[in-house]
Fold this sequence. Notes:
Structural class: alpha+beta
Order of helices and strands: EEEHE
Amino acid sequence: MPYVVVKEGRYYSGSPLKPGIDPRLIWTPYKKEAKRYVKRAWADKAAQRVAGVVEEVRK
C-alpha cells in the first residue's frame, strides 16, 4: 500500500522544482495530488522533515 504525508488536513505534494516558488504550494487539499511513497520509511522521513504524519492510502 502506498503512503502519503498529511499535515492539518492538507497533503504533501513534494518540494517545488524552482527555487522562487512559494513554499505553501507544496501542500494540496486533494489526496490524489499528494506524493505517494512506496515504503513506509521514506514517508516517515518526509513527515519528519515537514512536521506531518504518515497516512496509508487504500486503493
